[in-house]
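User: Please predict the structure of the protein below. I'd like the answer in structure-token form so I can feed it into my own downstream comparison script.

Assistant: Understood. Taking the following sequence of 371 residues as input:
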Amino acid sequence: MFSSADGSSYLGAGAHTLAEILSQPQCWETCLADLHASGKLQEIVGRFSSTSEWLFVGCGSSYYIGLSAAASWTAITGRRARAVPASEILLYPDLLLAASDNLVAVLISRSGKTSEVVKAAEFFRSRKIPAIAISCAPGQPLERAATTTILLPPADEQSTVMTRSFTSMLLALQYLAACVARNGQFADSLRKLPLAAETAFASLPERVKRFVTGKKFEDYVCLGQGPFYGLACESALKLTEMSCSYGQSFHTLEFRHGPKSIVRPETLVIFLLSQASYQPELEVLEEIKALGGTTIAVAPKAEPRAHAAADLFVEISFELPELVWAAAYVFVPQLLALYTGLKKGLNPDAPRNLSRVVMLKDEDNPQHATI
């Protein structure tokens, strides 16, 4: 696996987060193998294979898993899927469930005890809507409130922010989609991802660290389209959490409709370039570079125009279907957030004002966190 030598100068602050980021390929391999052997996904397929609509529900990073999972789900299964924050279910249920029929909810929470997600599970149960929970912690309230649960204990973290739990839960939901669609080829491709990612990412920590050390930014923007939009949202959140930086996320082509007014050399714009819409996204990258912005491009191929328009270019090309390696795109923003936080003298393991779980003691005294 990855060498931990890159983090040797940060044995205190950020040590857990760095180890958890670097452990992702091994974690994916373990989680997918456990799911394959457990029979849990086959059980879910047996119960819900005829469901026509899937609703992914979470808070913070877990909601962003839902955004990417819903896009993947429709692409893999051909069925309607969408994602909503748990708070919207609790506050505006009739708006979200209008005209919904034959629905199953997928409730996402690393801890299995995020108050709003647990309340959403209880709401679905009161409406007799089946709910599948996905979590990294067994025996928690969400598991008790849901119809059935997918558990990924190897993906849990010591640090506050979600890194390997984010990517592992997303891959598990893509794996479930492949099972529902009876797409064995896609499932096999997911199992090939860990080895491909381990090889491709071996040199990335040092590259990102050098980039952060030599630059100073005041604004951070993360861009993605389609299934990559949820990953862009997560990337911006990681920068906000780990480095207390102001991060924004947009659909890539939407950035030119007003937001590009902030672009200058102190603005770092991170492009998660897709294969499906590569050409129009590349044109935005070139436009932002021409305006004077500093750019990172995570791309599916080493293409001269993208290289020329990127201050840091990272190729993600595993000879696997695009949706399979989508989760791997957040590896670069995770490292960027970590090293930016360390450069600012912060501890990415324990960001200020955050705890690992949002548990509402009462309505007037919430605990703030990311899941």
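That's the full token string. The CA atoms of residues 196 and 318 lie 6 Å apart.
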